[in-house]
Design goal:
The complex is a heterodimer of chains A (130) and B (381). Chain A has helices spanning 3-23, 68-80, 84-90; strands spanning 45-53, 57-58, 101-110, 118-126. Chain A has three helices and four strands, in the order αββααββ. Chain A has 130 residues and is an alpha+beta fold. The longest helix of chain A has 21 residues, at 3-23. With 381 residues, chain B is mainly α. Chain B has helices at 2-34, 40-49, 53-56, 62-92, 94-104, 110-128, 135-140, 149-153, 161-179, 184-202, 213-231, 241-265, 272-282, 285-290, 294-310, 321-339, 347-350, 358-366, and strands spanning 107-108, 238-239. The longest helix of chain B has 33 residues, at 2-34. Chain B is globular, with a radius of gyration of 24 Å. The two termini of chain B are 41 Å apart. Classes of the chains: A alpha+beta (130), B mainly alpha (381). Chains A and B meet through helix 1 and helix 2 of A and helix 3, helix 4, helix 7, helix 10 and helix 11 of B.
Chain lengths: 130, 381
């Protein structure tokens, strides 16, 4: 390969490595490397999200082939965007379950030692037919 | 001389202009975006470049985003200074220029390229064979589909099953053809393009997996290596600049990861409390046990940062490569066990194959009796 073309490719690839670093964002397939770099203070808390059907049975996303981590990520993102109802409506709940109502429950726990979990119902929706 | 001064002043002026533009245009827009009143052009910029802002703005205060945007300027200034200094040395220091040129002018052998090709693409098939099997779950999540920028640019909606199957078949066939060296350059190109599309669909559900970050660079660069091999008739003198570039990019990825920690958290990242908090957040059984120990929570983050910032030293001393490969395996296995991140077959570890001298291994341990390697003038690699 001519040296000029080679050098252009080298510079392009090095730039593609640096741009996500400067912008602090992923430019797929070129990723940022800032994961786990934010400081975490004591006041942080863990968050879990569960979908309860008729306030007793817990929805298992794996039954619909939805990865648990992706489920939690989507639930959390929708919660912070005030779109929890939309989130419940988008889930394919009726594929494997019969229920009267579905509720999204947010369970939090402070990181400090000896702390206990706290839970609250974010939103509930009635059963829907597809 | 005038040209040299202009060469230095022009980028400096550009950075200065950028700072002014940032202070008077971008910073007020960030504040406005936080208060839901930014301009349309800025909203669309956020939508494309920083989509997680819509979630994070409910979790973090305005200062968090201002410091992030301030960092864009700081980082740009830092990187520009570094690039200017390097190019200045490159132009004026012959020894430096010689070092850079000779670094990329290295040659390699057919054995080295072939072993890398077979391992790299076999690993890719092994780690991605379920990309098609997961289509069913993607379809169940179709309503959550938010295409990443690359798919948006090419106007890819949610794929139907036939299209996905065709794409996956092309991916597998091209990877197999590459392994067997059949039209290897073209096959490897088709392989990486189809892989990026398939993987892109998986990344279009608001969660970005960074596991393939380094592997993507290797897969994008390896077709150039196969092209160089195709263009050469001498199996002992194949231009190895793509491998040399990969050997720069991988340490840089670690170095940037380390820099991010220092830039975002400063010395706080090294504190035991911070590390313990990460362990509790990820909730892995072994992580929770380790979190009980002050000593381990103190030394592990220091070790991790030394490893990430230090990996770049392999560029200056080849002797350090085995130590950093071992440290890397411990580092990623530790992430898997303590934080439940990645797996034993982590792509970050798979790319270490580029630091191994396969020719040497083959010559001394594997094919010694099968292949005659001791050719006069054979390159060291």
């Amino acid at each position: 390969m001519p040296k000029k073309a080679r050098n252009i490719i080298i510079i392009t690839f090095l730039s593609l490595l640096i741009v996500p670093f400067i912008l602090q964002t992923d430019l797929y397939p070129f990723m940022r490397f800032g994961m786990f770099s934010e400081p975490i203070k004591e006041e942080f808390q863990t968050e879990r999200y569960v979908v309860l059907l008729d306030k007793k049975e817990s929805y298992n996303p794996l039954l619909d082939g939805i990865d648990q981590n992706v489920f939690l990520y989507l639930a959390r993102n929708h919660y912070y965007r005030n779109e929890s109802e939309l989130f419940l409506n988008k889930l394919p709940l009726e594929l494997h379950y019969q229920y009267d109502s579905a509720s999204l429950v947010r369970i939090t726990k402070p990181l400090s030692k000896g702390s206990v979990e706290d839970s609250s119902i974010v939103v509930s929706i009635p059963y829907r037919k597809k | 001389m005038k040209k040299n001064i202009l060469y230095l002043i022009a980028p400096a002026l550009a950075v200065l202009l950028m700072c002014v533009g940032y202070y008077f245009i971008i910073r007020p827009e960030v504040i406005a975006a936080y208060q839901n009143s930014s301009s349309d052009w800025f909203n669309s910029l956020i939508e494309n470049l920083y989509p997680r802002f819509h979630t994070e703005k409910h979790r973090f205060p305005l200062d968090f985003f201002l410091s992030k945007t301030d960092q864009i300027i700081i980082r740009t200034a830092g990187v520009t200074t570094l690039i200017l200094s390097l190019s200045f040395f490159y132009r004026h220091k012959q020894s430096f220029q010689k070092k850079i040129t000779s670094y990329f002018d290295v040659t390699t052998t057919l054995v080295n390229v072939s072993v890398l090709r077979v391992i790299l693409y076999s690993y890719l098939i092994y780690t991605s064979w379920d990309l098609y099997l997961e289509y069913e779950q993607l379809r169940n999540m179709e309503l959550f589909y938010k295409p990443i920028l690359l798919l948006k640019i090419f106007h890819f909606g949610f794929p139907d099953e036939t299209f996905f199957l065709i794409l996956f078949s092309m991916f597998i066939v091209s990877a197999v053809l590459t392994i067997f060296n059949i039209k290897a350059t073209l096959s490897s190109l088709v392989c990486i393009l189809t892989f990026l599309l398939l993987y892109g669909f998986h990344m279009s559900f608001e969660k970005m997996d960074h596991g393939f970050a380094t592997l993507n660079y290797c897969l994008l660069l390896f077709p150039f290596m196969l092209y160089e091999k195709k263009k050469t008739t001498d199996p002992f003198n194949i231009q190895a600049w793509p491998i040399q570039l990969i050997r720069i990019i991988i340490p840089l990825c670690y170095f940037i990861s380390g820099c991010e920690k220092l830039l975002n958290s400063g010395s706080w990242w090294l504190k035991a409390e911070n590390f313990r908090a990460f362990l509790y957040l990820h909730d892995a059984p072994l992580g929770k046990t380790v979190a009980e120990s002050d000593f381990i929570c103190t030394i592990l983050p220091i070790g991790a940062l030394v490893f990430q910032l230090g990996f770049i030293s392999v560029l200056f001393s080849k002797k350090l490569i085995p130590y950093f490969i071992i440290a890397g395996i411990i580092f990623h296995t530790g992430n898997w066990l303590l934080f439940d991140i990645g797996s034993y077959a982590n792509p970050w570890m798979a790319v270490y194959i580029f630091f191994i001298d396969w020719n040497f291994l083959a010559k001394n341990f594997i094919f010694n009796k099968l292949i005659q390697f001791n050719r006069p003038g054979m390159p060291a690699q």
